[in-house]
Amino acid sequence: MIAFFIKRLFQAIIVMFVISLISFSIQDNLGDPLREMVGQSVSEAERQALRDEMGLNDPFLIQYGRFLGNVLQGDLGTSYFFKEPALEVILKKMPATLELVFGATIIIVLFSVPLGVYSAIKPFSWFSRVVMGVSIVGISVPVFLTAIGLIYLFAIELGWMPSYGRGDTVDMFWGWDSGLFTLDGLHHLILPSFTLASIMLPLFIRLIRSEMMEVLQSEYVKFAWAKGLHSRRIYFLHALKNTMLPVITVGGVQIGTMVAYTILTETVFQWPGMGFLFLEAVNRVDTPLIVAYLIVVGAVFVVTNTIVDLIYGLVNPTVKLAGK
Amino acid sequence: MALLEVKNLEVSFGLRSGEVKALRNISFNLDRGERLGLVGESGAGKSVLGFSILNLISRPGRISAGEIWFDGQNLANLSAEGIRAIRGNRISMIFQDPMMTLNPVLTIGQQMVECLQAHRKISFDAAKTIAVQKLKQVYIPSPETRFDQYPHELSGGMRQRIVIAIALLLDPDIIIADEPTTALDVTIQAEIMELMVELCERNNVALILITHDLGVVSQATQKTIVMYAGRIIEQGPTKEIINDAQHPYTQGLMNALPQMAIPGQRLNQIRGAMPPLQRIPTGCAFNPRCDYAEEACKRELPTFTRSGNCQVACHMVAAMRKAEQTQEGV
To answer: What is the pLDDT of residue A324?
Structure first.
């Protein structure tokens, strides 16, 4: 277990190093930060002097080294727009995004497992056919269209749901403001969560279905029938546990991807999270904020993948975490 | 009364191209403690027959006619719960490949205890005691340790022993073993076969041994059924069939055994291959491959003729027996 952690930590450092290099190259090539920082009245000579002072004229590697040094001390630069440390700006918005991803994940787990399993056990029933048909539509329709459709139907026509924002939040700890503990917050979470889930849910239903159908054909499931076990135990223990192995792997990658997809969902719903912030930062050419976003999202990817590998090791006995 | 009585069993598979009959007119008896060998080439229907006894044929296959009498019940039209209570309890199965038979994500212990708990109200500890005792019976060293291990931690021979232990868990009346040694190392094969015969004899369990290895059948069984293209073509005491096969197909199988060949000589084989189920020839299904086939063989399906203690479905054998009888009559 410890060996596994050390190995993963080492991998994580390499991954984060690559991400930081890419993010910094983007910053280096994304326009002139001085144009955003100083007004029209500053002369070219003064600008040059300021550039020298900020080290913007140094060679790329020296600038990168300085950037890396700062990053290691938790300093990802200062946002040009907010005039605050970029990391703090991002982290303030992170709870909103994580709660949105959490909501979507709950929806995906709650629906994909029963629907996938059912349509694998009874592939010819009309309900399975409907699920399969709808899931194709779900995969094909882009997120922003789903979002607008849901807003139109549930917020405007029916008036059941709020159409934008996070609603009431409560301050938890370390400045984490949460919408999960107020009715209004949960109410606001429903539509964005479904929107975000709409891309991944059909994928997972189909993945679980096809994996499960394959597992149901296996010799060990046939043997389980021959042992006279109850069908419930065969489907939900013998078959499902084996079905979930590849699903967990895909799921881990997809949770990371979902953080990225929040950009679209948050924009349509005016959800005050990292994705919405990122889009604003791009519009304002707020490069430190863009870089900070990329690094934070990269870190989220690395952390979720490590957790997923841990879970995988718990489910699959043939994987020994301490091994090698 | 026989322990198991199969009468005119027919199994069909509903395919897009139409219904295909995988088994036709299968009838045989099995007595308590009797060991029966089921032989034939691949595709003869041996495995389908084995699985159909427990109604385990998967869609689109189904039992389309016939009866399977066991303990006063007709297994062919028992309710789902009724047949479940028989499976693994009164009649259990052993599969071909022990590498695939055990669930990779559950421990040996879980897979044994669940079987006991599916059929009896029994606590985990009591079930564990029985499981460990059965593991000892199949000569698994340090059974308590194995109980908590996963299948991938054990060798193929060891896994097949565990599958046998699972089959024996509830002291069944019949074990159906579908090529139990085919996937094993040659040296392990003999060991496993010996173990199965020993355990069946000791516990008075009847065995249906599905195999294409006539050597195994001759050593392990008392009765043999030879199948071809979904039908029984010859059945009787194993000794008679091995020493004096009547049906040209059985003779062909016997001649194809390697130990009968002189070193350096080409192995005998039956020419041609078994026809696919959709294109079974009229008359005797074996006629295109048979050296003795005559006109009648291509037209009419042969019925069973008594020959010694055997039943043989062959026109030629029928003609020979008839000739003998008329000679005796004169």
So the answer is: 35
Q: Residues of chain B whose pLDDT is less than 50?
A: none
Q: Does A222 touch chain B (CB under 8 A)?
A: yes
Q: B310 pairs with which residues across the strands?
A: B307
Among the listed residues A30, A33, A23, the one whose alpha carbon sits nearest the alpha carbon of residue A54 = A33
Of the candidates A305, A237, A262, A227, the residue with the CA atom closest to the CA atom of residue A16? A305
Instruction: Please indicate whether residue A317 or residue A28 has the higher confidence score (pLDDT).
Output: A317
> What SS3 class is residue B53?
helix
Complex prediction ipTM? 0.90
C-alpha B262/C-alpha B266 separation (Å) is 8
Evaluate if residue A323 carries a pLDDT over 50: no
Tell me the shortest Cα–Cα distance from B293 to chain A, in angstroms. 40
The three-point CA angle B259-B260-B263 to 5° equals 70
Amino acid A25 reads S
pLDDT at A28 over 90: no
Judged by phi (left if over 0) then psi (alpha if -120 to 50, else beta), residue B179 lies in left
A220 with B101: Cβ contact below 8 A = yes
Residue A298 has a CB neighbour count (10 Å cut-off) of 19
**Amino acid letter, residue A229:** L
A84: which 2 tokens?
Answer: 């605050």
User: Most distant CA pair in chain B: distance in Å?
Assistant: 73
- Least Cα distance to B279 among B234, B232, B229 occurs for B229
What CA–CA distances, in Å, run from B244 to A162, B51, B309?
87, 30, 11
Nearest-CB residue to A317 (from B54, B96, B105) = B105
Tokens of B124: 């985990």
DSSP class of residue B278 equals: G
User: With contact defined as beta carbons under 8 Å apart, do A277 and A293 qualify?
Assistant: yes
Query: pLDDT tens digit string along A195-213?
Result: 888 888 999 999 999 999 9
Chain A residues touching B112 at Cβ < 8 A = none
- Which tokens is A144 given? 């922003």
- Bridge partner list, B62: B12
Q: Decide which of A259 and A221 is more confident.
A: A221
How many CB atoms sit inside 10 A of residue B43's CB?
18
Task: At A179, list the tokens.
Answer: 């919408």
Structural domains in chain A, CATH included, are 86-212+239-315 (1.10.3720.10)
Write the Ramachandran bin of A17: left for phi over 0, alpha for psi from -120 to 50, otherwise beta: alpha
A93 contact B CB<8A: no
Contact B100, A218 (CB under 8 A): yes
- Chain A CB within 8 Å of residue B87 CB: yes
pLDDT value at position B256?
Answer: 80
DSSP state of A165: S
Q: Is pLDDT above 80 for A168? A: no
Q: Indicate the Cα dihedral angle A127, A131, A134, A140, nearest 10°.
A: -160
Instruction: Confirm or reject contact between A218 and chain B (CB < 8 A).
Output: yes
| pLDDT confidence tier of residue A221, bands split at 50, 70 and 90 | very high
Contact B103 A238 (CB under 8 A): yes
